[in-house]
Write a structure and sequence with these properties.
The protein is α/β, with parallel strands linked by helices.
Length: 617
Amino acid sequence: MELGAVLNAREDLLNSSKDDDGFVQQNLLIDEVMPLLLETKVVDSEDINHTYYLSNDDKIKINGYTVNSTGERLQIFIVDDSYLSESNDDFYVSKRNNYEEQFKKAIRLVSSAIQNKLENVQESEPIKPLIAKLGSEDGLTQFDVIEIFLVTLSATVSFRGEEPQLRTIHYKDDNKSFSHRVVGKKAQSKELLFIRRVVDLNYLANIYSSQGRSEPLKVVFKDVIGKNIEVIKAADEEDFESYLCVLDAPILADLYKRYSSQLLEKNVRSFLQFKGVNKGIKKTIKDDPEKFIAFNNGLTITATEAKTSYYKKSLYLESLDDFQIVNGGQTTASIYFSNKEGFDISNVKVVAKINIAKTSKSKDLDDLISKISEFSNSQSRVSKVDLRSRSPKLVQLKSLSECVLTPSGKKWFFERAKGDFNTQVRKSTNGQKLKNEFPPKKRFTKELLAKYYCAWGDTPHLVKKGGEKVFRMFIENIDPEKGDGKDINRDFYEQLIAKIILFREMEEVYGQGKNAIGQLRSAAVPYAISAIYLWTKEHEGQFSLENIWKQEALSIGLKEYLKQLLVLMNDLIKKYSLSDDYGEFSKKEELWAVIKLSEELGYFMSSDYSQKRLKNT
């Protein structure tokens, strides 16, 4: 990575994070960074609860948080506001303590919340539900890992040469024990694993240049589990070598706790909870732990390099580069969560086959891993959609975006590959003209595409989740395993753009910051769109997406109506949520099931006002 790429990334992120008045906003910067983190699989969704809170007296700060899809990992985000100036004169960081002071602000937040030292925080503060959660018995039970992301527009460098040299700073994971007292009960202790990640310009520029391909996961076993793993070499061929071993279940639990879904990046499925095969895995752990090795098919692991050594005539595995579990992700997660529920896993053992791909070519590597994944997954059905990284339907959409003109004679830019737009800008002889032609409002990525498309349906809770779940739902809808799927033609494209306009303008109507309707925009918008979708189904399509395409905007009257609908939806989410953390609870199907049948929504959608506005889109 060169300094020029870092400068370009800085300029792009600063420009994309400005509000309408031209000021860089921390919440907008996080919104720009989240899809990049999703690309590298360190988060499960681009969705985040914006909860800006700063206390100089307590030396505490947080910009937002999210909880991973399986619930055990709290991910906290802090923006380093020292480097938000557009000046390129001083954004180099060479000392670790510059970042350490920022991380301490989040660690103090967690520690103070667990010890109930933040009771003076106002109920109206967006951070209040998280503080209450951390200070409760339920929160202490739920969270095992606190992962802190420091988002900074600085470049981490070394000044040892004539020119600054880019470098990476890693922080060792820390286990911290906390004592928590619940009224009327004995004090409880909990050990939390703290993981600190510097998301600097070096990291972000690398994502742009690699088009989202994440940094390979290197596992050094002594660092994670305290010892090397004894193995037997089973094969040594031209393009791969294989090892066999037996892993104690606590080893897998420790690996999952540390790396979570990163272990499963090339795996075909994320954890499916304790259903089907996973229910059987849990039962075996509970009733017949010694027989687990006989009943379970074991793991298939891939890597690109293995470091081994001999000790007393036995072969040991020291580390694996680009470590991935391509079959057995369900087994690994089930072991972790069974242990979390209190089941003894000390007598559980799992067979593992480790395949080392010797090829250095990315295409050959992906093809080999896809085949290993496809042919080794037999415990539950695997969809070909899950294994496909590229869809011809997306290629068709890209082609349409390049040739279809809007009624005003303009085009939209579909960024099918991460960083594609910035690459085009730099290749162009007039990059500024291209930026003017395609401002952020006229661009969309495949992840956003999935969200906009699926919002026009009956699953707003999944849209709120974002990430892999909504993208998979989108792909399976337009390109199912059986049948031809959607016809990706001009009509489809025009309706798609209309859905994008509807979603984005509703976000503007809801607002952000002090002038917003509330703090639930990422939930209220898809929930409101789903209400319109259900009304349209009932009234035979009288709400016209075609008119939105033709007008390329929403009418003033429709915006006024949508504001009232969003206000209502905001209130209903808070009223019917069974948790004070409304943002997290809005990801649950049970909330949407109650809201869509509620008297309040039914009355509003059947009113003369709704009939008039929705029929005259």
